[in-house]
Every structure is written in structure tokens, then in C-alpha cells.
Design goal:
By secondary structure, the protein is an alpha+beta fold. The chain folds into 2 domains: 8-156, CBS-domain, CATH 3.10.580.10; 163-212, no CATH class. It has 8 helices and 9 strands. The protein has helices at residues 44-53, 73-81, 87-91, 96-99, 113-121, 146-161, 172-189, 205-212, and strands at residues 8-9, 33-34, 36-39, 59-64, 67-72, 102-103, 106-108, 132-137, 140-144. The chain has a 5-stranded mixed beta sheet with strand order 1-3-4-5-6. α5 (113-121) crosses α6 (146-161). It starts with 7 loop residues before the first strand and ends with a helix. Mean pLDDT is 83; it is low at 1-7 and 10-17.
Amino acid sequence: MTDHLPVQRRPPTDQRRPAARDAMAVTLGELAQAAVVVDAVTTSGQVDLLFRGDEMLSSVVVTDGSLVRLVSRPLFELAMVGPLGFGRNVWSRRPLSAMGTSPALVLPSETPLGDAAIAILDREELHRYDDVVVTGLDGGFATARVTRVFEQLSAFFAHRSLHDPLTGLPNRPHLAAHAARLVQRDALTAGNSAPGLLYIDLDGFKAVNDQHAT
């Protein structure tokens, strides 16, 4: 990286995956990761060096006055190759503003994942899966990958389909699926053991369920 490259890096954010059952309370900021920020006069060749030097870097945030734009790795690499393979010769010395960058989807860090997903799906198809630019974290920029947003939501709905929303305990579909696996395992092992089912009746639980269940 050249010494004059105007890059700002955020300190790494917490990368721990939130628990699936808490997904609807998770905010976009909790999925955000360190962003690389450059200005619009940065050359395409300098950004090319950033991508080639970090294979995990999926995007670069570009600030142009009050505008926030995004360079997405797949589209950038396609442009740098060019239709005849001469893209780097054409663009390397030219600023990002000449190449053109994508308008970024910018959301505050406190945005719930459900709202973020709606905003993502409302984008035009070409840029629908570009990273989301996240603001409000220590006054700087971060990015959140769209795949992480939908993975977290998917995990939440998968968990909710098999657990009671009030108690968090496994529900009837979970029991049925688990019982079927036990019966299948017993049939395959052909042993002397067999699965059993223990039924417990809780006195007065109906009143609790009627009062607190949604």
C-alpha cells in the first residue's frame, strides 16, 4: 500500500454470532465489521491493491463530501478486467469518481435485522447483495454483509419453528422429529433397547399459559 493512500480503518467490532433465539432483537451494528474507507480521489489502482492484499475484503466505502458510496468487490474486479482484458490499463491511474461507484445503502447501527432485511430487498437487483454501510459506531463507518443478516434471520426462524416462544422449550414438532430419529436409530441398531416417552402433567400450567402466551 502506498504511503499516500487515504485509507481509514475502523477497529474491529465484536464478531461473535448472536444467539438465534435473540435474532429479532439483534441490531445491524452487532453484525458490523471493520470498514475500509477511502475518498473519491483515490485511484482505482490503489483500491485494486487493497482488494488483492486482503482476500476477505468484500467492499470499500467511498466518501465524496456528504455522499457515501460503495465499491463492491465483484463488480470492481469485473470492471478491472474489462471486456477485452485491458481494464487495469484503462482504470488503474484514474480516480474512483471516474469509474463510477454504487450508491450505498446506509443504515444506523441500531436498525433491527428485520428492518434491515426489508431495506436490502427493496434495492435494485444489481446491488441487492452489496454490503450495507453502518453508521453510528464510534462516529465512523462499518459494513455488514448481507449474507450475515439473512443467516441470522434464518437461524432465528428455524429455532422459533421448533421451540415454544414463551418458555423456549422444544415444542411438539421438535418432539416429533426427535422421536422419529430415535425410532430410526433403534431400527438400524437392532438392539434390545427401545426409545421411551415420559409424560409430565404440570398442575396449573394452563392458567400461566393463558396469561402470558401470545
